[in-house]
Design a protein that fits this description.
The protein is α+β, with helices and mostly antiparallel strands. The protein folds into 2 domains: about 60 residues; about 100 residues, Alpha-Beta Plaits, CATH 3.30.70. The radius of gyration is 39 Å and the shape is rod-shaped. The termini are far apart. The relative contact order is 0.11.
C-alpha cells in the first residue's frame, strides 16, 4: 500500500512538474504561432499594396501624355512667355499683325472658386475680317483654354476698307 501511495505521489508530482513547467512553454509556442499568422497576414497585405502601387505607377506612365496635355490646357502658372508665342504664331498663321498685347490677372469674386485663376489678354490685331474669323477658330481649337470676352473693330483709314484694327479680349486660365 505504501508502494501505491508513493507511485501516486510520484505520478502527481510528475504531472505537477509537467503542468507548471511545460504549460508556460506551450503557451509561448501558441503565442508565437499567433504572431507568425499575424506577420503572414501583414506580409500578404503588404504584397497586395505593392502590386496596387505597381499598377498605379504603370497606369500613370501610360497616362503621362494625357496628364501633360491637361497641364498644358490648364497650366500651373500664368506662363505668359509661352502664351505670347502662341498668340503671335496664331496671328501670323492667319495673316494678322499682332500690334499690341497686354495681360491682366482677374481677381476671383467668389472664394469657392479656388481651382483656377483667370488671366485677361487684351490684344490689338490688324488684318482682314476673314483672317480674324480663322484666328478665332484657331484660338478655339488651341490646346490652351481661351474664351473670347469682347471684340471691337475699326478701320484705320478711309482709303482701305478691307483692313481693320481688332481690339480683342480673351480670358485664359491657369491653376
Amino acid at each position: 500500500m505504501i508502494k501505491n501511495i508513493i507511485i501516486i505521489i510520484l505520478i502527481l508530482g510528475f504531472v505537477a512538474v509537467v503542468v507548471f513547467l511545460d504549460v508556460p512553454e506551450v503557451q509561448s509556442v501558441l503565442n508565437l504561432k499567433k504572431d507568425i499568422n499575424i506577420q503572414k497576414e501583414t506580409f500578404i497585405e503588404t504584397q497586395e499594396l505593392g502590386s496596387k502601387i505597381e499598377n498605379l505607377v504603370k497606369s500613370s506612365r501610360e497616362n503621362k501624355e494625357s496628364v501633360e496635355k491637361t497641364n498644358y490646357i490648364l497650366p500651373d502658372s500664368e506662363d505668359i512667355p509661352n502664351l505670347i508665342v502662341q498668340l503671335e504664331a496664331l496671328a501670323f498663321e492667319q495673316g494678322l499683325v499682332l500690334e499690341k498685347i497686354e495681360f491682366t490677372p482677374i481677381k476671383q469674386e467668389s472664394e469657392n472658386i479656388k481651382d483656377y485663376q483667370t488671366l485677361s489678354v487684351n490684344m490689338r490685331l490688324i488684318g482682314t475680317y476673314p483672317a480674324l474669323k480663322t484666328f478665332l477658330k484657331a484660338a478655339e481649337e488651341n490646346m490652351r483654354l481661351m474664351d473670347v470676352s469682347s471684340i471691337n473693330f475699326s478701320t484705320p483709314s478711309e482709303e482701305d476698307l478691307q483692313v481693320f484694327e481688332f481690339d480683342l479680349s480673351l480670358n485664359t486660365y491657369y491653376q
